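Folds abound. A case:
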Amino acid sequence: MIAISKKSSVFVITHEFFPMRGGIATYVEEMARASVDLGYEVEVWAPHSPQADDRHFPFRVLRIPLRGTQDLSCQIRMARQMIRERRRLRKGIVYLPEPGPVLAMTYLHYFKAFKPARMIITFHGTEILRFASRPAARLLVRQLIKRADLVTTSSRFAHQLLKNHFPVANCKTRLTPCALRTDFRATASTRKSVSDKVIILTVGRLHPRKGQIHILEALEHLPEGLHDRVEYWIIGRGAKGNYEARLREMADRSRVAVTFLGVIDNDDLETFYQRADIFAMTSINHEKSVEGFGQVYLEASAFGLPVVAHDVGGVSEAVCNGKTGILVEPHDRDGLTEAFAQLIGNPDLRRSLGENGRIWAHDRSWSDSARLLYEPVDGRAMEID
């Protein structure tokens, strides 16, 4: 296969995009930006949102009237949009960077009238398990992978999952890893101490998979004398269910001062990273949901924060155990408590891990990942070291 010309249009089709938050939305935006930097003409298809302001993007954004979920109605609306635009798509590169449009495309790729010049799919982790667990979806996705020109994964962990559940992808799969978000890369990361206490920060959805409850439990079991030296700040919005209520109830009983800060805009998030001393997010595998990578760990490292996390999914690709942070096995409360106690009592260790993390976070490039989308595939099995 010859490399595709940069004159070809790239259509990035997604259900997760600004102003939505999260790792996949960041991945989609950054890969689109990097593709523009490489010289490609990029158009992003994304759900309509009244809060969206698309003027600052270096690519065109086509807003589609759908909610941005992966339910059948959104799949059908996205498929209809693809059908309406089939003449343009046939001449371009269609990039499906997340599961919503992958599901929509499973219905269309059988039709000869609908065949893009090149089709690329990216998998992140959780969707692989969900597709594999449903027989009809497993069959449809396997056939779509066969038709794809290239498949990529955002982490080695996701690559192994894909290899295990959809081995047909192995001969056409590349690793296109995450990097630091563009607006964080240019940020000065000077520490701004605001308290004589050690501030532990978590940024993420208030959801069982993000594991804030495990941090609260671990902090409660700190050695005597350490509780008064710590503040725990929680940034994020509550999900469905009573998880946030459980967190707040535990916080009310905790011997550690806990502050719920709600949702913070990206522009203001910098301030909280600069004021914190330790970043913690103890994700766990929850039902069929896994942590494929964890973009937020890189962001915290960029500000020189040592990281405490569970060694689960692809987290070890974002946090280097003993170098940029401390990884603990999931549900090892004593190990988690010890990790916090070690960092709280040792400012030199915090500083060392934080400095290593700053270097680590900046030593990645979205351009390197995007470039791999457009290089030819030779059809041999690809082993990712």
In short: The radius of gyration is 21 Å. The chain has a mean pLDDT of 91. The domain at 9-179+365-374 is CATH 3.40.50.2000 (Rossmann fold). The chain has two domains: 9-179+365-374, 184-362.
